[in-house]
Amino acid sequence: MNAMTLIAKRIGIAMLTLLLVSIVVFSITALLPGDAAQAALGQSATPETIAALRAQLGLDQPAHLRYLHWLIGLLSGNPGQSLSNNVPVRELIALRLPKSLLLAGVAAAVSVPIALSIGILSAMYRDSRLDRALNLVTLSMVAVPEFLVATLAVLIFAVKLHWLSALSYAPDNPGMGQFLRAYAMPVMTLCFVIVAQMARMTRAAVIDQVSRSYVEMAILKGASPARIVLAHALPNAVGPIANAVALSLSYLLGGAIIVETIFNYPGIASLMVDAVTNRDMPLLQACAMIFCCAYLALVLLADVVAIASNPRLRSQ
Amino acid sequence: MTEKKSLPRRDVLRGLLAAGMLASAGAVRSAQGNIQGNTYSGAPKRGGRIRVASVSSSTADTLDPAKGALSTDYARLYMIYSGLTQFDSTLNAQPALAEEIHDTGRILWTFKLRKEVQFHDGKPLTPADVVYSLLRHKNPATASKVKTIAEQFQEVKASGPNEVQIRLTGPNADLPAILATSHFLIIQDGTTDLRTAVGTGPYRCKEFNPGVRTVGSRNTHFWKPDKPYLDEIELVGIADESSRVNALLSGDVQLINAVDPRSIRRVLASPDHAVQETKSGLYTDLIMRQNMSPTSHPDFVLAMKYLLDRELTRKALFRGYATLANDQPIHPGNRYYLADLPQRPYDPERAKFLLKRAGLIGERLVVYASPAAEGSVDMASLLQESAAGVGLNLAVNRVPADGYWSNHWMKHPLGFGNTNPRPTADLLFSTYFKSDAPWNEAAWKSEKFDQLLLEARGEADEVKRKQIYGDMQVLVHEQGGIGIPVFISLIDGYDKRLRGYGSIPIGGLMGYQFADSVWLDDAMTHAARIPAMRSLPA
């Protein structure tokens, strides 16, 4: 089996997974107690107003019909109308998704190089003082809950020092200064969460390679430690590292909810939380699908990188 | 009704009570001192922009007055629209878009509209706009929050080029106050798409992004001369309380509502910020369903009322930012408040006696509480302690806020509810206590009460009306199925450069109506130190 068929097969499986996920998402959201009509009217619901609103929102149709409509809509790029304010779901997502992607992108751009450097350095100087110090730092970073990091950062940098903004609102075309002020704390908080995991996995993957016999051969040939790790071990460790990075990054979209809440960042995770509280099923389902897509895409990408970086598969 | 002569005495008593409250409140309210100074210093200035953070904002945010559900919605709606009437600081309805109001027998009301009022798109305000705005609440398809209130509009019609007539199904002296609430704000005739808003209010809707922000820009043709003062107001929601306070203290926002009493010290520690306490009619109440056992037993009801430790609730739960309540819903700031109704004390002995008489000692009961009803979880724990002391075994079932109103509220024998301030005694009583009201929380039925309610609506004589409402308070206090420990104060935090800020006891953020009153005084000494307004997009 060559690399191309392998990749095609992976994509096929991803598609099938998405279809199954759509069924699961649709049926699970139907299990939530109450519906959009009840949530919208809240304390002021009377049977009459609820019935009127349900009919208006199309909630009186049977579930399988609603699923089919929704799936067809989804495939044609129209995930329906938001029930809570009658705006197309696409519009709501179009406002939030770019913001989430931007935050995730910046966080990834900062955290991946840091994590890889930490991991590779630790592996190169395994069991040295540097290795132990880096271990200690990364482990304590991942052990501190992110709401604590974020809140402390706000108290120090925004409330006390007035250096940064407590809310993360960047204007549409921010200057460099504005951008830094708005994004510094959220990005830092997210990095706290994901750097450690990636660094640890990178270290493990590189060390795994370093203990192989071909590395021993390189050492016997007199290669320097840096050359051994960077030129010999690392290319073979790309597969597992890519997987670790993909898993960590998939957290940046949906997992950013705490950061979005504390900094009032208008991202897609808080959109999904809104959707749950308002029982806004089309929006909730669309968000869930986006998260699943992003996750699958990242994992797929990691697979492709792993396959492409594997000479045994590449050459066949 | 023999109390007519005692009225002056009652007023004196109330005056004394109010004075006493002020005296005891001295420490807090150095903050209030600031406000007085704040409100009356210097002439209003034009210009500047502020950012305001309210408690919540989600994709359910709305520009439709009929659908407004939360403080952020109300603030947004009052920013963009005006009503026929508006509240003053004592919740009396004053003329707004209506210049003159006449009534015949409190059934037929005539509103003469102010001339030369313009909508934001330049169209003049006409009677057709008013008729449309009021009648749409009766249409089930509007799914209006105030449909039940609007049912009493038998007919709304234009009765002249600048005049609207409302005929009610029965007399109601409170119509002007009802029309001042945000749900009855005036929109343009025929409006169905409310994704953007055209109103007659102080700010035009420049940007509306549900769950993110609303930006209003100064309406240069506003019908109140010289107002509003600010160029722009940005309204956002910050759900997390500590984030909201942090945003205020860091200068990212200039005004916030719903400050937790525990955070007040932090706000006051800042030289540039102050808090505003609004003593309101907001309450969280213990509900004892009268159609379920054993909560329907009169001795049980009374025993539970004696078990509410009101003073401790006020001090410990709300750090003093609350007013003692007396198991009836009219708060001391209301002009119909019955001041000489004796305060029910915390009396476990009495409660024990009553429970024994009802044969309920040793009984196990579940009480439902939720963060959805402010403070109810802590109140339930206090009650559990007091009850344990007299041999009643209460189990507190804490349920999530999500879905509380549809799944738990009024569904269990013993639970908690929460009622926002209402503009009139009639609205409160008809919504929560009338025998056939859908939200008669305790399923309490009293023919006498219903009769008095209707009588008060049509009563033209204020003195008699006050007496009737007094009798109704006594009825609820003595027989009603709810216990109200305290009225909870609303607390806002603001940047001291914000001037003209005050309180209207219908809600925080100056009764949600701060938009047309506030201005910015940038000349203050601290100004240079707080880097406010900085990251606002131009």
Describe this structure in words.
The complex is a heterodimer of chains A (316) and B (538). With 316 residues, chain A is an all-alpha fold. The longest helix of chain A has 36 residues, at 89-124. Chain A has helices at 3-31, 36-41, 47-57, 63-75, 89-124, 129-143, 146-160, 176-210, 213-220, 225-254, 257-262, 268-278, 281-308, 311-314. The radius of gyration of chain A is 24 Å and the shape is globular. Chain A contains 14 helices and no strands. Chain A is 78% helix and 0% strand. In chain A, 38% of the residues are buried. Chain B has 538 residues and is α+β, with helices and mostly antiparallel strands. Helices cover 29% and strands 20% of the residues of chain B. Chain B contains 17 helices and 22 strands. In chain B, strand 4 and strand 5 (108-113) form a beta hairpin. In chain B, helix 9 packs antiparallel against helix 11 and helix 15 runs antiparallel to helix 16. The termini of chain B are far apart. The model of chain B is unreliable at 1-40 and 524-538 (pLDDT under 50).
The residue fraction in helices of chain A comes out at: over 70%
**What's the rounded overall pLDDT mean of chain B?**
86
Largest sheet of chain B: 7 strands, mixed
> Low-confidence stretches of chain A at least 5 residues in length (pLDDT < 50)?
none
Q: State the major sheet of chain A.
A: none
Question: Helix and strand string of chain A, N-terminal first?
Answer: HHHHHHHHHHHHHH
Query: What structural class do you assign from the helix and strand content of chain B?
Result: alpha+beta
Search tags:
heterodimer, A: 316 residues, mainly alpha, 78% helix, globular, B: 538 residues, alpha+beta, seven-stranded mixed sheet, four-stranded antiparallel sheet, 22 strands, disordered C terminus
Briefly characterize the structure.
The complex is a heterodimer of chains A (316) and B (538). Chain A is mainly α and 316 residues long. Chain A contains 14 helices and no strands.
